[in-house]
């Protein structure tokens, strides 16, 4: 007999999946610094924080290609820019980033409820793991998956489906906590309820234009029942 996922109640959740950039950690400073180093080395003008805020969230390849296009760089520079970006990112990962207010308290609340947690980001997984470690958040997550962990990344539902499998929890009972329409699209495709934070990077759109189960200003404001 198969289980009909639609019949499973969303409340309370059995497991949680958290996005990283813009949800757990404010990483715009790292992106601005790394892109600045790369562009300067290539003799191109640098980009600012508002540009990165609009562009981030769809993986490094998208960010690097969009940045080159924005500053009038030759698209043929991409492989060189990518290699420089990787080296600089690895060197300064976390230096210009901060855990958002309410995140530690929110993760503690979820841990106290016994909810298993995964982190699913479009950041390369090695950078994601280093960053979580460096900021003292690694211990909350049973699994960390990045933009290079599976064949496709968010907004494709695949990373969330794989995470639900790893967490041993049905998608309908696994909440995706994110900051963008990219997270919501992935969650909708996977059948996961969505919780959205108001303080992240939603490609320049107000977060309440994206349908969600809850909107919160801090992770410790999530209601689980
Ligand atoms: O695009 C990225 O590198 C990361 O974005 P995410 O953590 O919000 O998925
Ligand atoms: Mg995000």
TrEMBL record:
<dbReference type="InterPro" id="IPR037512">
    <property type="entry name" value="PGPase_prok"/>
</dbReference>
<dbReference type="GO" id="GO:0008967">
    <property type="term" value="F:phosphoglycolate phosphatase activity"/>
</dbReference>
<dbReference type="InterPro" id="IPR023214">
    <property type="entry name" value="HAD_sf"/>
</dbReference>
<feature type="active site" description="Nucleophile">
    <location>
        <position position="19"/>
    </location>
</feature>
<keyword id="KW-0119">Carbohydrate metabolism</keyword>
<keyword id="KW-0479">Metal-binding</keyword>
<keyword id="KW-0460">Magnesium</keyword>
<dbReference type="Pfam" id="PF13419">
    <property type="entry name" value="HAD_2"/>
</dbReference>
<feature type="binding site">
    <location>
        <position position="179"/>
    </location>
    <ligand>
        <name>Mg(2+)</name>
    </ligand>
</feature>
<comment type="pathway">
    <text>Organic acid metabolism; glycolate biosynthesis; glycolate from 2-phosphoglycolate: step 1/1.</text>
</comment>
<keyword id="KW-0378">Hydrolase</keyword>
<dbReference type="InterPro" id="IPR041492">
    <property type="entry name" value="HAD_2"/>
</dbReference>
<dbReference type="InterPro" id="IPR023198">
    <property type="entry name" value="PGP-like_dom2"/>
</dbReference>
<dbReference type="InterPro" id="IPR036412">
    <property type="entry name" value="HAD-like_sf"/>
</dbReference>
<comment type="function">
    <text>Specifically catalyzes the dephosphorylation of 2-phosphoglycolate. Is involved in the dissimilation of the intracellular 2-phosphoglycolate formed during the DNA repair of 3'-phosphoglycolate ends, a major class of DNA lesions induced by oxidative stress.</text>
</comment>
<feature type="binding site">
    <location>
        <position position="19"/>
    </location>
    <ligand>
        <name>Mg(2+)</name>
    </ligand>
</feature>
<dbReference type="InterPro" id="IPR050155">
    <property type="entry name" value="HAD-like_hydrolase_sf"/>
</dbReference>
<comment type="similarity">
    <text>Belongs to the HAD-like hydrolase superfamily. CbbY/CbbZ/Gph/YieH family.</text>
</comment>
<feature type="binding site">
    <location>
        <position position="21"/>
    </location>
    <ligand>
        <name>Mg(2+)</name>
    </ligand>
</feature>
<protein>
    <recommendedName>
        <fullName>Phosphoglycolate phosphatase</fullName>
        <ecNumber>3.1.3.18</ecNumber>
    </recommendedName>
</protein>
<dbReference type="InterPro" id="IPR006439">
    <property type="entry name" value="HAD-SF_hydro_IA"/>
</dbReference>
């Amino acid at each position: 007999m198969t289980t009909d996922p639609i019949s499973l109640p969303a409340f309370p959740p059995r497991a949680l999946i958290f996005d990283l950039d813009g949800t757990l950690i404010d990483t715009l400073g790292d992106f601005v610094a790394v892109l600045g180093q790369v562009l300067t080395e290539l003799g191109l003008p640098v980009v600012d924080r508002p540009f990165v805020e609009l562009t981030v969230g769809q993986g490094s390849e998208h960010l690097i290609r969009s940045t080159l296009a924005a500053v009038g760089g030759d698209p043929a520079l991409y492989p060189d820019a990518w290699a420089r970006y990787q080296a600089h990112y690895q060197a300064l990962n976390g230096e210009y980033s901060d855990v958002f207010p309410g995140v530690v308290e929110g993760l503690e609340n979820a841990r106290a409820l016994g909810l298993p947690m995964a982190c699913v980001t479009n950041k390369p997984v090695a950078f994601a793991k280093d960053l979580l470690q460096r900021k003292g958040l690694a211990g909350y997550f049973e699994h960390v998956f990045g933009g290079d962990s599976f064949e496709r990344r968010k907004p494709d539902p695949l990373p969330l489906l794989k995470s639900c499998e790893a967490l041993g929890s049905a998608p309908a009972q696994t909440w995706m906590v994110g900051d963008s329409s990219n997270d919501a699209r992935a969650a909708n495709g996977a059948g996961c309820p969505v919780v959205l934070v108001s303080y992240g990077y939603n490609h320049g759109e107000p977060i309440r234009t994206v349908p969600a189960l809850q909107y919160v200003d801090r992770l410790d404001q999530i209601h689980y029942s």
